[in-house]
């Protein structure tokens, strides 16, 4: 991961900063915050612990906000759809949906989660490094139709792994009845919380929004369970890579469309038919097959991991694309990568090469995710 270069004096701190330091975390600059990259056990052990038990992540650097209708409108969903790709008018209460914030050219300004946990408009979570720009765009484009209220006084925790449900249910019994992409506003740990059954690891788990002044107590309460350990940004990155989940600023940016990125599901059927959102013309053409590049998932068959910036070549050695994320996959025991290449090279099983330190190494296009996800879609 590439932290943003800021001096320690410039860095913000999440409400859990002191807890991270007390736990022996190695802190690094990330998205303008001082964040834990790993704890005493190291990235590899943290990664495997999350796959086998339950890992607890501080993601309070991310942007949380409420979007509410203006001028007496009960829902801001119609207005919100002007700048995002997903169908939010059809989003049912108690559910959330992944979408992307678009520019006029159909490029991705950010990817985000939007929920209807209650009747108080929409609850939106965006990436930490993008939040100021995101909410400025949303407020500008929705002016007069909706209002944006940033929730700067809240923290966000992610509890991920096969034992996450049992751990959280001991404190929040209602959580056990939720399924993947459910989102509810409820009382948990004695405070007002917004809990979704989702995450960024490919594992079952939850994201838990609580008031900032309760964050450390909730954090310590969950860590008191022997099935839970704190997990840093290093393992968060390797887990999401194995899950085939793109990372904004690496695999996604303002030049990449959701179709190029393989996020077709993020463009709702009703939105495709209406074509009433930013960049709709480009996205319609790409959905019809007019693409010059697409996201590919690569298994690196020899040598060192191919990391961001490494070139992708065909079997003859001609450069055809570039790696946008890559590293060693602890769950698999070999290197993997995400990158972009022309559609002719995207079929599963296609033999390619990656250029690492000036040397070509064999690679193969494989299906996504690299490690099967374990989302609980029904009880």
Description:
This protein is an alpha+beta fold. Helix content is 18%, strand content 32%. It has nine helices and 20 strands. It has a six-stranded mixed beta sheet with strand order 11-12-13-10-4-14. The protein has a six-stranded antiparallel β-barrel with strand order 15-18-17-16-19-20. Strands 6-7-8-5-9 form a five-stranded antiparallel beta sheet. Helix 2 crosses helix 7. The longest helix is centred in the middle third of the chain and has 11 residues, at 131-141. 48% of the residues are buried. Residues 1-6 have low confidence and may be disordered.
| Major β-sheet annotation | 6 strands, mixed
Q: What is the strand tally?
A: 20
| Helix and strand element order | EHEEHEEHEEEHEEHEEEHEHHHEEEEEE
What fraction strand?
25-35%
| Order of the strands making up the biggest sheet | 11-12-13-10-4-14
What is the tally of helical segments?
9
Termini separation comes to 35 Å
- Based on secondary structure, the structural category is alpha+beta
Quick check: average pLDDT? Answer: 96
- Radius of gyration from CA coordinates: 21 Å
* Helical percentage: 10-25%
Which of globular, elongated, flat, extended, rod-shaped describes the shape?
globular
Low-confidence stretches: 1-6
Describe the secondary-structure layout.
Elements: E1 12-13, H1 17-22, E2 26-30, E3 33-38, H2 43-52, E4 54-58, E5 63-69, H3 77-80, E6 96-102, E7 108-115, E8 122-126, H4 131-141, E9 146-150, E10 154-160, H5 164-169, E11 183-188, E12 191-196, E13 205-211, H6 215-223, E14 228-230, H7 233-242, H8 269-274, H9 280-287, E15 294-300, E16 311-313, E17 319-329, E18 334-341, E19 351-356, E20 359-365
Parallel strand pairs: 1-3, 4-14
Antiparallel strand pairs: 2-3, 4-10, 5-8, 5-9, 6-7, 7-8, 10-13, 11-12, 12-13, 15-18, 15-20, 16-17, 16-19, 17-18, 19-20
Helix pairs in contact: 2-7
């Amino acid at each position: 991961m590439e932290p943003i270069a800021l001096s320690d004096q410039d860095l913000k701190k999440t409400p859990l900063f002191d807890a991270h330091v007390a736990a022996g975390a190695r802190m690094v600059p990330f998205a303008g915050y001082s964040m834990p990259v790993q704890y005493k056990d190291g990235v590899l052990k943290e990664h495997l612990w999350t796959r086998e038990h339950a890992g607890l992540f501080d993601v309070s650097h991310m942007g949380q906000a409420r979007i509410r209708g203006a001028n007496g409108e009960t829902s801001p969903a119609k207005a919100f759809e002007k700048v995002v790709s997903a169908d939010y008018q059809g989003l049912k209460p108690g559910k959330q949906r992944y979408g992307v914030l678009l520019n006029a050219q159909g490029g991705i300004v950010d990817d985000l989660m939007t929920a209807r946990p209650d009747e108080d408009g929409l609850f939106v979570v965006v990436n930490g490094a993008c939040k100021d720009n995101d909410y400025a765009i949303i407020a500008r484009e929705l002016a007069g139709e909706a209002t944006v209220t940033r929730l700067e006084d809240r923290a966000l925790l992610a509890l991920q792994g096969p034992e996450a449900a049992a751990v959280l249910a001991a404190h929040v019994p209602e959580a056990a009845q939720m399924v993947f992409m459910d989102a509810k506003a409820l009382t948990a740990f004695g405070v007002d919380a917004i809990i979704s059954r989702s995450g960024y690891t490919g594992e079952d788990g939850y994201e838990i929004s609580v008031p900032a002044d309760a964050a450390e107590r909730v954090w310590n309460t969950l860590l008191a369970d022997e099935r839970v350990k704190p997990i840093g940004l290093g393992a968060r990155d390797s887990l999401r890579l194995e899950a085939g989940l793109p990372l904004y600023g690496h695999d996604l940016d303002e030049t990449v469309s959701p179709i190029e990125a393989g996020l077709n599901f993020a463009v709702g059927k009703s939105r495709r038919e209406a074509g009433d959102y930013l960049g709709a013309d480009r996205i319609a053409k790409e959905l019809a097959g007019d693409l010059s590049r697409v996201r590919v998932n690569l298994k690196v068959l020899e040598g060192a991991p191919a990391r961001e910036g490494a070139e992708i070549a065909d079997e003859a050695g001609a450069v055809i694309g570039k790696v946008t994320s890559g590293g060693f996959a602890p769950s698999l025991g070999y290197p993997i990568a995400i990158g972009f290449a022309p559609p002719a090279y995207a079929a599963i099983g296609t033999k390619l090469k990656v250029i690492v330190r000036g040397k070509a190494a064999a690679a193969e296009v494989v299906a996504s995710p690299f490690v099967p996800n374990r989302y609980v879609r029904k009880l």
